[in-house]
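The aim of this short unit is practical: by the end, you should be able to scan a pair of folded records and say something sensible about each. We start with the first protein, listed as its amino acid sequence and then its structure tokens.
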Amino acid sequence: DKVGGRAWVRNANPTSKLQTELGVYHLQYDLDYPAPVGLGTWPSRDELLEHFHNVSVEYGLMPHIQLNTAVIEVRHIVDQQTLPFYSPERQHLSVLTQQILETGKRDATQQAAFSTVSFFPGGLVAPLRLEYKGEEAFQGQIGYGMFDEFDYTCVRGAAPAIIGFGAFAVENVRTCLEHGASKTWILCRRKNLAMP
């Protein structure tokens, strides 16, 4: 159980690094708090996860965070219709959750009431996996560039092709070159602004 969301806990590779400068991407982003010390400008996945955890502990958030929890239902309940919509006594939200156990099974349903709910689903939840014609005949490594699925030790002296041009494509160009690739090829429909 780690604070960091799916993008950093599950999707990111051990070699993943922040592509936005740390000065605008950290948890103490407030006028009253300086940027964290001990982290580089582009920290790694593991350094960011440690930062997220340390700040959550320092600010007393961990007892109030439920990790590995599935939200089953959110219901809007009107308690006093005659009150103005902004009054906290007018309405509440009833939320049903289930803790996801290590076995993948779900625990008993829990119910809680809240005055507001913030929902941050992110955009890296269901990556597109394609199978290309002739993959079975290809003699090299084929792997998805996230979830720690690719063995970068195999690219030394080679010229790997990276399909796509999202953040993980840019990351994999850097990582392949850091692991000794002679060059990398990007195959994409259109260029993004974040050029490697």
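Turning to the second protein, read its sequence before its tokens, just as you did above.
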Amino acid sequence: MPKLDVETRQYRFRVYNASNARTYDLALSDGARFKVVGTDGGLLSQPVEADHIVLGAGERAEIVIDFGPHTVGDKVMLISRAFNGSPMMGMMGGINSRSMNGGGMNGGGMYSNGVSSAGMVNGMRMDIMRFDIATQAADDVTLYTALPANAEINAQRLTEADASKTRNFVMSMSMDHMNGGGMTFVINGKTFDMNRIDEIINLAEGDTEIWSIQNMSPMAHPFHAHAIQWQVLDRNGRPATGTDLGWKDTVLVQPGETVRIIGRFDPAVNRGDYMYHCHILEHEDAGMMGFFSIH
């Protein structure tokens, strides 16, 4: 297990869930709270305090942990908390083997925006990293409470009124009776086809769109779209809060949940062909992916 000697001061960590399928519910073993200051696409306009944060496959976060309250000799563990949920874990071995070789594990807990993640695949408690408090030190860092006006970060919140179009994406599962009877993962009823463009974005009709992501399967899916960063508008109609206020390119969508995201395409840099897909590798390879083209 990795370990890091730390001083009694604040540390900023960039955390990336690079697992192929697993979701982590990250927390500190002593239950201490920390500050979330950034998401996939950059800094939050103000820090969000949390005692844990859920990261689906492909999601990122920047967190600030304060070891100041500890004394030299203490040890603190970064853990992924145990959680229970969907019985779908038992079905993972039956996923279409076109590109699938066994099952992954994803998970849940509670988002730092307060959204429950019940109904997700079982996850066991894991020790991720140990922090050894090795040195007493003064901390002269004051964490920002709001980004300064001259910060080179786009803190603008897009609104529904900014969008010229809404597109709907339904993520679901079905049995593939043509290829051995395994599980197939689909978006809008279709598996991925390299020779098919699923969505065409015509910038002449507007550069800002809302994408509505509906999860009709019993498993959570981290939806990832290439090309730009997005903002979460709402989850099941509830306005975005907490870490959902940051720029995102990967959004974890719970079973039965609809998440609306909004993004603005830049005509100078975004023209071309891109993909959207579930960021769980096994689901993506089993067909949960599509093409979109920006003209």
